[in-house]
Amino acid sequence: MRRAAHDEPVSTTRQSPADEELADFPFPEGPRATPSPEFARRRAECPLSRVRLPTGDTALLAVRHRDIQQIMGDDARFTRDLSAPGSPRLFHNLLMLDDPTILLNMHGEDHLRLRRIMASAFTPRRADALRPKIQEKIDLLLDEVERGERPVDLMQFAYRLPTSLMCGMLGIPEEDGPQLKEWVSAWLSFAMSPEELDRAARGFDDYVVALAARRRAEPGDVLIDHLISARDVDDRLSEDELVSMVRTLVIGGNETIAGSLSRMLLTLLTRREHWEALRRDRSLVPAAIEELLRHSPPGGGGSGLMRMATEDVVLESGSGVVRKGEGVFTPLVAAGHDPEAFPEPDLVRFDRPRTPGTVQFGAGRHYCVGVHLARVELELALTSLLDRFPDLRLAVPVEELVWSEGTYGVTLPALPVVW
User: Fold this and answer.
1) What is the Cα–Cα distance from 200 to 183, expressed in whole angstroms?
2) pLDDT by residue (tens digit) across 297-314?
3) 338 Cβ contact partners less than 8 Å away, ≥ 6 residues apart
4) Could you report the per-residue pLDDT of 325-348, keeping only the tens digit for each?
5) Residue 356 covered by a domain
6) Can you give the pLDDT at residue 356?
7) Residue 191: φ, ψ to 5°
8) 38 by DSSP, 3-state: which?
9) Helix 285-295 to helix 272-280 angle, to the nearest 10 degrees?
10) Long-range contacts of the stretch 320-323 (C-beta < 8 A, 24+)
């Protein structure tokens, strides 16, 4: 990976109203990683306002569901290409958001071309076909959980499941999983030195290049073989794009599932009535997953993406105007806790209507390509935990759980449980 060269960011956004003090973002989360009350205040008083980012840059912050949905879904007037000098950065030295070759950060025709190639491997039919294999992996991992000394750190299960599945899809030896986890952590860290990040980036890239060489010598019929064919036979991928695509799949497939599962379990185990409801009725699990993702999205209050306006855009809700060249951040937790879209948003309700959408998997052309596989993984994992450990409970008071620092998105490094 070659990080794009750019000048020191210079704020391109307009001045904050005189009566609105510039606040630091991300906001401190509430107790038990609940949304900051600042989102509700701004939703009522200044739904499109300026904030100061950890880099010192400023950007607009949208906090209404309707605005966030509009911005995320309008690919014609909002771009994810932040490579231009002066583009606001949430964090310096964050590989995940700085690499212009990652699908997440691309825009335009190249993005569409690469997305079409990747999407063909993640259709609903393919995700359903993988159910037996996913269930087999879950059963093996939960066998280890059951044999383990209590309390058991359930985050080990939460991370190993998606890593194991992605290793199988990409022809990666499963024993390389811990090394992949280290590289993923580096790509999501803003606390590591530039030298450490460059070393991790080179190591990850060199690994993927060697992996592709092995698969070319001994091809098979898993996802990476089809990506190599798109590169070598159909000439639809460059070598750098092939490497970036594999890297994207490893990072996205690992962190999203682990973060989602941990926050779901934390909510269920601290609001016991919802765990008991799922114990009584497994048919509620799919709806529960959508509701739990809305209520506590992976990454917490800083989870979301920056976009740049390519022209002046009037927000349809009446919140204001995003001027051409301005950056605007769209936090998912703010969208999910907008009472106009989700009445009594702090309540967990498995009977909520599916409309409006939660936008937890994105919108527009950047809608998560692996959404169908993610839902199958989460559904089978949660159902299996309910079946195997109906009396599952936290091993420590929730106040003693330690949340991550220095990484993109607030996560639980450990989730000790007993049963």
Assistant:
1) 6
2) 998 888 888 999 999 999
3) 43, 63, 64, 65, 66, 345
4) 999 999 999 999 999 999 999 999
5) yes
6) 80
7) -100, -10
8) helix
9) 160
10) 320/47, 320/48, 322/48, 322/60, 322/71, 322/78, 323/13, 323/14
Check if the beta carbon of residue 412 is closer than 8 Å to that of residue 401.
yes
In a domain, 393, yes or no: yes
**Token pair belonging to 203:** 């190591």
Residue 27 structural domain = 23-418
β-bridge partners, 351: none
- Rounded CA separation 30/37 (Å): 7
CATH code of residue 82: 1.10.630.10
Task: Round to whole Å and give the CA distance between 27 and 266.
Answer: 21
Distances (CA, A) of 291 to 185, 266, 345, 390: 27, 14, 10, 21
| CA of residue 74 relative to chain centroid, distance | 20
Query: How distant, in Å, are the alpha carbons of 88, 100, 190, 403 from that of 6?
Result: 11, 12, 17, 32
The total of structural domains in the chain comes to 1
Asked whether residue 182 is domain-assigned, the answer is yes
